[in-house]
Amino acid sequence: MAEVVRFFIDGKECMAKNGDYLLQAAKENGIYIPTLCHYDGLKPKGSCRVCTCKVNGRLMTACTTPIAEGMMIESNTLEIEEMRKSIIELFFVDGNHFCPTCEKSGYCELQALAYRYRITAPRYPFLFPLKRVVADYAKIIIDHNRCVLCKRCVRAIKDEMGKSFFAYRRRGQNIEVILDKRMSDRMSFEIALEAENICPVGAIMAKRTAFTTPIGYRKFDKITIGSDIEKIKTK
Amino acid sequence: MAEKKIIATTSLAGCFGCHMSILDIDERLLDLIEIVEFNKSPINDIKKFTRKCDIGLIEGGCCNSENVHVLKLFRENCRILVALGECAIMGGLPAMRNGIPLKECIEEAYLNGITVHSNTQKIVPNDPELPILLDRVYPCSDIVKIDYSIPGCPPHADLIWATLYSLITGKESDIPYEVFKYD
Q1: Is A158 touching B (CB cutoff 8 A)?
Q2: Number of compact structural domains in chain A
Q3: What are the two backbone dihedrals, phi and then psi, of residue A38, each rounded to the nearest 5 degrees?
Q4: B153 CB near a chain A CB, below 8 Å?
């Protein structure tokens, strides 16, 4: 039996099921906590740190923190928002994010977060790391320049046996996502599209699908990321 | 009426798209020339700074020695320096060559590229008059201090207008979500 607990986000009283993750609980209460690596229905990973909140005075990632009775959470404060902004800026300098040429532009969650925070330019120097573009798979292209290592593709895209198509290889700063060569041969177009959609940025692209929607009609062209959640609050 | 603000603009390693976007402010150009005067700029073809400027708009990043020279000149002569567009902010499309050695880039452009037909003598331009290409393309903020950035490829005309208006008049502008874009 689910027990309902009471907690506070920025002083606002909220209710959720005991043990629910904070990100989800906040969403149910009409409060948007920005995130990049989390995807509804997937086991949380806590890799991007964008959803970091102050929980009872300590910094915790909202996607991996279970809610408990009486928790005091700071989310929309100057300190936290500024920190999130700087994390997003770090993503931009850590990879090679050329928005003007990117097929995912307008659908990219990293870009949408940057729009939300009105980031004109990152405060950090661009690193221009040397990354590969792998286009020799049958159905997809993996562009490591854009990858933010959220692990969504590894966690979500599985075959009927529950085996992941994608995996990490190497460690530390050399870590990258790869697609199992043998499994890529039997990857269907539907799964390729699914992989493209699960990727928050343009690192995984299904072949021969790009630039189908005109500018102005794309997902984040007119709508701020998270505004759908915040609308629930004002009902 | 208060004294007119002086604006200078330049295009470094850019495509002039950002300058086109300045012209896209349409009839507001008439309002603009009421409150500003242009100094060194491709718009009026003034080649040299004739006085210190209030605002310098920089389009494009730095891909050769001349770009660096001009950018430093702008920093010396402009009180406020604004990076206009993705190329000035982060190098943009020219910076896509940053992972490729310069030698390979030149050989692809002049010798080995599939569209190279007429270069039968295999000449790579090497005149001392030509600016020297840098090892990679640098964002403007890597060379000099940039005060403000206007994102976009090109930046939306409304965004340029709002920024210029705010810088000139000192009043805050309301920038709608739709005009703040990176592409």
Answers
A1: no
A2: 2
A3: -85, 145
A4: yes
Instruction: Indicate whether A234 pLDDT > 70.
Output: no
pLDDT digits (tens, 9 = 90+) for B87-105: 999 999 999 999 999 999 9
Which residue of A92, A94, A97, A98 to mutate against B (max B Cβ within 10 Å)? A98
Verify that A200 and A105 share a domain, yes or no. yes
Interface check B63 vs A, CB under 8 A: no
Domain hosting B19: range is: 5-96+136-179
What pLDDT shows up at residue A180?
87
Q: How many domains does chain B have?
A: 1
**Per-residue DSSP letters for chain A?**
-PPEEEEEETTEEEEEETT-BHHHHHHHTT-----SS--TTSPP---S-TTEEEETTEEEETTT-B--TT-EEE-SSHHHHHHHHHHHHHHHHHTT--GGG-TTTTT-HHHHHHHHTT-SS-SSPP------EE--SSSEEEETTT-----HHHHH-B-TTS-BSEEEES-GGG-EEEE-HHHHHT--HHHHHHHHHH-SSSSEEETT--S-SPTTSSHHHHS-TTHHHHHHHT-
User: By residue range, what is the domain housing residue A120?
Assistant: 91-211
Last residue of a domain, one of A19, A44, A76: A76
For Cα atoms B54, A100, B68, give the angle at the middle one, nearest 5 degrees.
45
Instruction: Indicate yes or no: CB of B151 within 8 angstroms of CB of A120.
Output: yes
Domain annotation covers residue A24: yes
Q: Chain A to chain B, count of Cβ pairs less than 8 Å apart?
A: 67
The verdict on A95 and A72 lying in the same domain is no
Cis amide prior to B154 (ω within 30 degrees): yes
Q: Are residues A24 and A66 in the same domain?
A: yes
Instruction: Please write the tens of the pLDDT for every residue from B125-173.
Output: 999 999 999 999 999 999 999 999 999 999 999 999 999 999 999 999 9
Chain B contact present for A102, CB below 8 A: yes
Spatial separation of the C-alpha atoms in residues A218 and A215, rounded to whole Å: 6
B104 touches chain A (CB under 8 A): no
Nearest CA in chain A to B177: A222
